[in-house]
Amino acid sequence: MRIALFVTCLVDALFPRVGQATTELLERLGHEVVFPAGQTCCGQMHVNTGYAREAVELVRHHVDVFSDADVIVTPSGSCAGSVRHQHAALARDAGDDALARRAEAVAARTYELSELLVDVLGVSDVGAYYPHRVTYHPTCHSLRVLRVGDRPLRLLRQVAGMTLVELPEAETCCGFGGTFAVKNAPTSTAMLADKMRHVLGTGAEVATAGDASCLMHIGGGLTRLRAATRTVHLAEILASTQSSV
Amino acid sequence: MAAAFLGIPAPPGVGQLRGDRSFPAAARDALGDSQLRRNLGHAIGVIRTKRATAVGELDDWEQLRLAGEAIKRATMARLDDHLVRLEAEVSARGGTVHWARDANEANAIVTGLVQATGATELVKVKSMATQEIGLNAALADAGITAHETDLAELIIQLGDDVPSHILVPAIHRNRAEIRELFLREMPGVDPSLTAEPRHLAMAARAHLRRTFLRARVAVSGANFGVADTGSLVVVESEGNGRMCLTLPETLITVMGIEKVVPSWQDLEVFLQLLPRSSTGERMNPYTSTWSGVTPGDGPRAFHLVLLDNGRTAALGDAVGRDALHCIRCSACLNVCPVYERTGGHAYGSVYPGPIGAVLSPQLTGIHSGSDDNASLPYASSLCGACYDVCPVRIDIPSLLVRLRTAHVDAARDRPLPTAEALTMAAAAWVMSSPTRFAAAETASRLGRLAGRASGRLSSLPPPLSAWTSSRDAPRPPEETFRQWWSRTRGGSA
Predict the structure, then answer these.
(1) pLDDT at position B491, please?
(2) Can you give the residue ranges of every domain in chain A?
(3) pTM of this structure
């Protein structure tokens, strides 16, 4: 299958390894990955901070870039959520029904990584090997906007060599929330502190999730604490093999 | 937001819909109160589990939620008709209906009605609407003493405190604190009072009985008003509300106009949704209903005050009006990770938590720069837990985003854009072009030189210093993804 990668602005600029892992994983499973070079950002930060007017231009750009793709994958529950649940509504609010219809068409072909693997490609064992103790944090938007359910866990349970430990109060937000982390930093930090307490309580070496943004938050807190647990994106674990470890 | 002018916002200076500080400032203090966080964390954990169990028992819960949402939406679409019908039916059964445009009008109406009876004191059943309009303070100004009879409201009143939760107004207090308060403030209390819940309740009971038997006037709120029969419904757990509703000669009910439901069939849906969502019970313990006055049974005079106080203004927004669907169950507070850590007082309004963050700013309006409710729509990480538990499916995260947009758009008219607005505009300009975006990535990587070699930045300039105050920031990598792609896959980037 020919799959267009929507890598997200955050991964492109700060966490390229997540995009590389997504590419390597899909190629290993026998698919062709293409990277539409015109892509930039889905505009979620603008929308969620109240800048809908600016976001509409980013939506237009995103739709232009991906309108030819058959299947689009993104290693982010949050950005997939924005594409699927915000783009068309933004266009409609701006009075651009034609853009809204094109946005709906792109949204219908856009999948978060675990959705693509389980629902479209029909795999749960991707042949990964990852000899570590790992705990999984289901990010809010993958859980409650996309409803990915246990798809990431089904994928993780098949990873050879890995010990998967349950995260207490896993479904509680880590406190990131985009600009919330800065506008309400003390509240965000209080939420993060509880998330880190639960992560560290599992004794896991690695905390994983399907969103680089939430992992940036949790990981930023963990390194500040000089904690032994590090954050690794789901795609990186699934891309790991016996030969790469 | 809709441009059409369809109502007036709740006026400032009266009642409790606005705090005197922004949410972040108030939250900062609350977060530092370890006793508060412990009290809240414990109480909320218990309620949350109870609700999940009660909801999990029903296999048609989602259909019930859909029904609740549909009834509310249909009712709001014809709110004027239903209210006029309610008025006619209440009047036909011997009640008197008063229309109050805002808090000041409602307070004046209730004060006048109490004064007409000659009473100088009254009993109250727990009511959000009368807290919203600051009725007790208005009555006190007129020399009338209002006695709260709900146990939690009594705790609040004795402590000269304000509610911090819709359902459990004194959730921020533990039993040791309540014992101390009773010993200090409750007249004639047994000095050997312990902190056992049963002893505390018995002390309150003895204190309240004297008041109930003396009172000639009662003030209540209403959970629902059934238009078909002009019937009012109060849902409570203690029975103290029923004492208020039946013992006094005069009963005055203050009800927000959004509380009307067309029929008893509609009510049936909400009486299933509400107890399971709020207290985690299958059925509500005390559900009182009355229609006008009945000779020889209960109050001889009944007055219904229908309160607008910004509700029509909220109804004018095609999306924001969904906040008026709220049945005050407080399930959204109990699952909210922000509320759990800051408590209700940080929201400054009698309506705290996620629903308060969308309801309060709509009732007051957020367009005034000095109005602190403008910070409420940002008091959320948009995690969506509130939407999942809402019994009438109010999409609170989307409403929060919509209010943020309204706030940002209102600021666009100012002569000088905010720093944030400039940053957002610049970011949108950069990100609408891959060339500019790639150039910005290269520029940010130059910033690597400023960071330490660890791959983490521990200090950034404002406003990002708010991030690095507690979290490291990632250092830009040697190579962006698009550069890696170009190098390894050969495509142009």
Answers:
(1) 59
(2) 2-120, 133-239
(3) 0.95
